[in-house]
Structure formats: C-alpha cells, structure tokens
Amino acid sequence: MTPARQAKRPAEMWPILPDDRLLAMLREDVPYGDVTTLGLGIADRRGQAVFRTRGTITACCVEEAERLMLLAGCSATHRLAASGAQTEAGADLLVAEGEAQALHRGMKVAQILMEIASGVATRARRILCAAREGRPGIAVACTRKHVPGAKDVMLKAITAGGCIPHRLGLSDSVVVFPQHRVFLGRMPPHLWVAALRAAQPERRIAVEAESVDEAVWFAGAGVDSLQLDKLTPEQVAEAVRAIADMPHRPLVAVAGGVTEANAAAYAAAGADLLVTSAPYAAPLADIGVAVSLLQP
User: Fold this and answer.
1) Can you tell me the distance from the alpha carbon of 44 to that of 152, in angstroms, rounded to the nearest whole number?
2) Is 255 helix (H, G, I), strand (E, B) or coil?
3) Are 44 and 120 in contact (CB under 8 A)?
4) Does the pLDDT at position 101 exceed 80?
5) How far apart are the first and last CA of the chain?
6) Domains and CATH numbers, the chain
7) pLDDT 10s digits, 187-234
8) Helix count (H) and strand count (E) of the chain?
C-alpha cells in the first residue's frame, strides 16, 4: 500500500460529520437491504476493501468514509490519509475489513462521498495556489452557492483545500446586493449604511458593486467591504487606486467568475480577498475500490 502524504494541519481542524448524518446517507442507499449480496448467498463471507485514488488529489472526507464503513458493520478499518492531505495517484486512502454484506452496505456511499468532497477540495486548492502566484498570502473564500442540504460536506471540502467560507447564510453577515437596493429607492448610500450600523452595530457592512463608479460611491459612504462583481482585473485595479487614499479604505473582495485561470490576475490587481463558487463545479475525484476475499 502507498499511503498519502499527510496534511500539515491535523484532521481535527475539519470536524467529522455526526453519525446521524452518516446513517441517513446509508439509509438512503440501502433502505431495505442489499438484495444482490443476499441473493448470491455471500453476505457472511469476509473480505477487504481498499479505497485508492487514481489521480493526484487533495483528499477530503476520508474520516467520514471510515466511519461509514464502521456504521455499515465492518469489523476493522485503517485510514491512511486525512482531509487536506495531498495524495498522489495510486495512494491508498482507506482499508476496511468485514463481511460482504457490511462492505457492500457502506462501500459506494463512502466512495462517492470522498470523490465529491475530494474533487471540490482539489479545485479549491488549485484556485488558492493560483491566487497566491499573483499575491502571496491572499485568501480565497467560497460562497454558499452549493447544492442545498450539502453545506457541511462543502464547507469541509473547501476548508480542506485551504480556502475559507465566504458567507454561511443570511443570518451570519450583512451584504447589501442590488436586489436589496431596489427597495431603497433614491435613498443615498450614506443613509442606509448608517441605518444598518444602528440596526446591526456588531456587524461589518459589505456591499456589492457592479462598476468602478459604484465602488467609489459606496466606499465614500463608509462601508467596511466592497464586493466587486464581474469586473475585469483592470477595472479592479482602477477601483483599488480610486479608493486608496480614502480615510476609511474598505476591504476589496472580487467575486463573479473567479477561477484558477484568472485568480492570479485578480490578486495582482490589488484585491484583498477572492470570492468564488468554482470549486463546487469540480469534477469528481477518481477513487477506486479494490475488494478481495479474506480466507477464514
């Protein structure tokens, strides 16, 4: 077996999904038993399943895969990688032993969960590395534009890739979008910024700007963060220059179409933070499962 190269930070930084969440995944896939395994009469035969990556990936949810196999009834597991580990093609991630009925009950769910999460983690890390070519140390935040109901898995995946959550939902941060401003009519920005500060005194105020002029306008109104949406790197650089000498210079985040292809250019343009949804569209990591019979 070829174990994965471990992450520099401990897996405990990324909490393992709770058992009730994992059991729900198993119940969804095997609600009334495995008719194939039962029908073949092999349910009680002992075997081993080895989960192995076919490509170079940033591993994620190996801990959950191990727990899934145990919850499915496997008698022993051996985890060879942690979330965040950089794994080369051919590296073993997890070994599980048990009866055939237990192996087949958990195997596909564990495999797919790792493939989805590792795919997202791998692209997240790729975008982060590209961004830091343009500006060392810049952070990349990932949005909440993932499949509803998958927030726990997606947050673990992007964090394993080195990124951070941009916004967990409507309840944790203040971001004023054009869809909010349509209800404000002609009210000047400094007035609704002041009203927001009074209503949410502990929150930073972020506003999405769709042009350089809007960015300057909102910065002058005293916002804490500008989210520049779908501007080119050249426009971002122009906006950064225009607000550079303001007494209260807001943080500049760039969003809208940020990928590994343009992350370096946006970072070099002076952005303080890149915001992206691209990792959620990543292809699945290719993780195979080799099953062998264990002699009694």
Assistant:
1) 34
2) strand
3) no
4) yes
5) 22
6) 11-126+282-293 (3.90.1170.20), 129-281 (3.20.20.70)
7) 999 999 999 999 999 999 999 999 999 999 999 999 999 999 999 999
8) 10, 13
